[in-house]
């Protein structure tokens, strides 16, 4: 089992506090990271993915601090919201190129790509150029590149933005399957996404941790404290916030 543990994690840019003393523990499954735009979700994910350094506090993956960048990156797969593909490259070629950049052995890389293309229903698109794909197919290719190293932790930032309803449903279902054998941190401000697939829940607001625990444990006792969040998670309102 994989574990992510944050201890009094803070991040500050000049005078702006983006994350303030976050402490939590995550285990295998889909973790819904919920918050308004600007709440600090992307900053938190970038720290876990070793793309930003925290100002104070610690984050550990299986007791390894995220400051040990090489060891952590071997365990992490990351799909940022603004992931840029090589639009004129074919799907298979782009995945080989990205894998080689990560120093994966070519033979093992080709076998892994074959498995992922099959698993993601991308086999028929292997020789399509990236620019020829729909938004949903591009997101599948993005997930494929994030899974090249079979990571213990998969981080996806706002992956359903811009997808049509059918593509969004397919993507949610696949994310749910991935969470059966790793931690998947799924960031969104669309509450429907969280309600459909998350096992665990983190809610961040203005850099602070509002709630952390099992999604089913976001209980009626909290309604007096956080009525808007409870209503949203229960599905009383299906909207972005």
TrEMBL record:
Gene Ontology terms, MF aspect: ATP binding; ATP hydrolysis activity
Signal sequence, renumbered to the chain: none
SUPFAM superfamilies linked to this entry: P-loop containing nucleoside triphosphate hydrolases
Keywords attached to this entry: ATP-binding, Nucleotide-binding, Transport
Domain ABC transporter: start-end pairs: 4-231
Family note: Belongs to the ABC transporter superfamily.
Keyword ATP-binding in record: yes
Protein name: ABC-type metal ion transport system, ATPase component
Organism: Loigolactobacillus rennini DSM 20253
Pfam families: ABC_tran
Presence of keyword Transport: yes
């Amino acid at each position: 089992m994989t574990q992510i543990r944050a201890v009094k994690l803070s991040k500050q840019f000049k005078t702006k506090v983006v994350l303030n003393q976050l402490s939590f523990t995550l285990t295998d499954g889909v973790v819904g990271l919920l918050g308004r735009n600007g709440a600090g979700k992307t900053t938190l994910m970038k720290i876990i993915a070793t793309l930003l350094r925290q100002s104070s506090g610690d984050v550990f993956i299986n007791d390894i601090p995220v400051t040990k960048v090489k060891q952590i990156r071997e365990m992490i797969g990351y799909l940022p919201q603004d992931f840029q593909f090589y639009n004129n490259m074919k799907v298979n070629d782009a995945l080989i190129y990205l894998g080689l950049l990560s120093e994966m052995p070519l033979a093992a890389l080709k076998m892994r790509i074959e498995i992922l293309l099959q698993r993601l229903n991308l086999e028929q698109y292997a020789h399509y150029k990236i620019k020829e794909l729909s938004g949903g197919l591009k997101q599948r290719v993005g997930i494929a590149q994030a899974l090249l190293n079979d990571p213990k932790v998969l981080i996806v930032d706002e992956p359903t933005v811009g997808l049509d309803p059918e593509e969004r449903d397919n993507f949610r279902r696949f994310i749910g399957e991935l969470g059966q054998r790793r931690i998947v941190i799924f960031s969104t401000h669309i509450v429907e996404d969280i309600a459909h697939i998350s096992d665990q829940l983190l809610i961040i607001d203005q850099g602070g941790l509002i709630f952390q625990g099992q999604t089913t444990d976001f209980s009626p006792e909290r309604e007096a404290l956080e009525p808007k969040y409870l209503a949203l998670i229960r599905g009383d309102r299906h909207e972005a916030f």
